[in-house]
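Entry for magnesium ion complex. Fields follow.
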Amino acid sequence: MSSDPILKVEDVQVSFPVGGLGRRSAILGVAGVSFEVNRGETFALVGESGSGKTTLARAVNGLQEISAGAITFENQRIDELDRKAMKPVRKRMSMMFQDPVGSLSPRMTVGDLVTEPFRIHGIEGRNLREEADRLLTLVGLPTSFVSRFPHQLSGGQARRVGVARAIALDPALIIADEPTAGLDVSVQGEVLNLLNDLRERLGLAMVIITHNLHVVHHVADRTAVMYLGRFVEAGDTEQVFSAPQHPYTAALLSANPEPDPDKTHDRITLPAEVPSLLARPSGCEFHTRCPWAQSRCSVDAPERQVANGRAVACHFPLEPGARPPELAEKAAS
Ligand SMILES: Nc1ncnc2c1ncn2[C@@H]1O[C@H](COP(=O)(O)OP(=O)(O)O)[C@@H](O)[C@H]1O
Ligand SMILES: [Mg+2]
């Protein structure tokens, strides 16, 4: 599958200093992550809030310094570039930030907002009114919207303006952080369809970040599941969804089942809270919440096992259809 990666992330770590005088230490918001995104591909990054998704996205986009690892985009190492050298890279790799309305300046019109990338990058010789019309049409908004202000837009329309900004300069890769957060379910589908449609028409690669696994089921080619700044499982989206191998993935899926009358769902409730990054659990870092944990799990950290394009960091990967021990007991008695 790694035929023509446009983006290559290798063992990336992001460290944040914490603590005051005399008690300085650091936490790893991203704790050694590797993945590749191929041209034209959609890669999904999922995990609970706080798992490091936004930090990783900001690192890839050069907004967050990394403390270890390497990031290569279109065959160029970009993690060592300074602000100025990073600017042309951002034309090719655009970022859609969390919060659709809040990320649009309230005093700018839609027309100014969607053409702002041309001004930021000092691109001249374009008829900006024509560009605005072209971009609004591409994202399915009426061209009459050029004179509207952000507060006159619905959540879904604001997201479309965000998408228009992201595609303005013809990027090869879009990183979309929670593109559907805060939207009604039907509007979420529309925004995802739009992104998918643009990917095909413009030949884009995409990284979609979400805390809701089901958002990406039908749009992502591959999915990686993050926990405490690491990938616990990654693979072909269809396989990850139909037969999760990591208990955390299984729990995320069961917590938010897709409406399917033919399936009965055993909800896997995760005990205990997400551990603090200041006190990472020993052994497998998921063992404090894992219904399947055994004594070995609190001692040995699992290696990432890779087979058939899937990677899982677990001593006891789940068989398809596995049920958590207490539910299996209930069913047997
Ligand atoms: N600037 C920062 N300083 C210190 N800690 C941070 C900073 N940014 C993020 N973090 C921490 O890094 C972890 C990952 O955060 P984030 O990337 O925002 O997660 P997600 O996007 O998955 O919700 C969290 O524990 C968060 O508190
Ligand atoms: Mg986030």
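NOTE: The CA atoms of residues 34 and 72 lie 11 Å apart.
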